[in-house]
Amino acid sequence: MNMIDLIKSRRNIKNFKTDQVDETMIKIWLDAAAMAPNHRMTEPWEIYFIGPETRGTLNHKTNFGNAPTLMAVLSKHGASKVETEENAAATACFIQNFNLAAWSEGVGTFWSSIGITEQKRALLNVPDNYDLLGVLAVGYPEMIPDPKPRTPIENKIKYLP
Ligand SMILES: Cc1cc2nc3c(=O)[nH]c(=O)nc-3n(C[C@H](O)[C@H](O)[C@H](O)COP(=O)(O)O)c2cc1C
């Protein structure tokens, strides 16, 4: 599949098969994801694999679509507000790299913000100097939804003088 088709075919998956995803493959996708652009090479991302005990405490309404693998993705704060924002942008690039690498092998992801509250941060042991960018559920899709239409890109473009 070429890159455009890969990007356009990806979906946020909400129902997964229970089949395990090979951890070696997940590590390969994470390793590729880490090639994300990041200002000053801060590499701000951290990945916490969420075990069954912690998962239970999250009390998610669909149990993350029964995905077999769950990871929290954190982004380290910078020395200033701008650096913290840049780090979060880099970590979002990291997540999308991961999503696309997994998708290229038929594995789907569900990016959930899980309502990022202090309580959720505590359950996931997120240190004070990290943002919680979300929880990624990873697994083989049970169902692939139709694409959600996007605004024509021409409507999003401005030309500055
Ligand atoms: C930062 C972020 C947080 C998200 N949190 C949630 C969420 O909590 N629940 C959810 O159903 N989808 C969540 N999504 C996924 C979006 O809802 C989804 O990408 C959007 O509906 C478009 O669907 P698509 O990715 O299949 O094209 C999140 C996406 C991002 C980027």
TrEMBL record:
Cofactor: FMN
UniProtKB keywords: Flavoprotein, FMN, NAD, NADP, Oxidoreductase
Domain Nitroreductase, first and last residues per copy: 7-55, 58-140
Listed InterPro entries: NAD(P)H_nitroreductase (IPR052530), Nitroreductase (IPR029479), Nitroreductase-like (IPR000415), YdjA-like (IPR026021)
Position of the signal peptide: none
A GO MF label: oxidoreductase activity
Cross-referenced Gene3D superfamilies: NADH Oxidase
Entry's family note: Belongs to the nitroreductase family.
Record's protein name: Nitroreductase
Organism: Neobacillus vireti LMG 21834
